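Pasting as-is:
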Amino acid sequence: MEQQRTGLIFCAGGKAKYIDEARFAARSVKKHMPNLSIALFSDQPVKKGREFDLVFESYNYDHPQKLKMHGMLHSPFERTLYLDSDTLTQGDFAELFGLLDFYDIGITHRVKCQWPPNSTPVFIDYVDHDCVQGGFLLFRKSEAARAFIQDWANEFFQTPGHLIQPGTEYGDQVVMNRVYKEHSKNSNIKFLLLPNKVYNARPWMWGQLKKDGIWSQTKVLHAHGLNTPRHLVFLKKIKHRFSRIFQK
């Protein structure tokens, strides 16, 4: 297959609901960028449908989160944007690929919050300077970018699948941050830090984005449940409010 210049990849496996999320995410991308090629990496047989231009059935790892690095290392594109499958694109982000004329990798920070156990995170600031977020990675086919992703994969693949849990010390993001800090200090890789409030907006910042009048500038939302029909989201909110009332 001839190498394509730019494209986006999703990696989704394990359960059908994650593949459904990826289809929803891909449809939202195609709405704004119909000519952008989209590839899916999955450990399940998946039909391309109208959402995906390419589908790769990948090795069946002991945890589907390992598909992420596999997909990045085997991207069919010269310039690639990886997005987590639980995303919704709200605008054209084609400008990102041009930035790879000057950088190897584009990355976003995690939103800074208080993270109380068993409770909703509380927004503090848009940027947590101590942590980059693993749901977005822009990269080109350079030796430096491949070395970064390969080092991330080599370390993360050592974690047994039964221990892997996103958001914990056994998630891929912790390993990613460790490798990012090492490469930032000790390699010639050129990193670009991109605004998460535009390209990787997590739900804990949404209220603040609206208060600051910049919600319309956000191009990629990143949260579970974005593909849930609105009437079910409404019913869930009502149920949650009633449960809180009766708990008092």
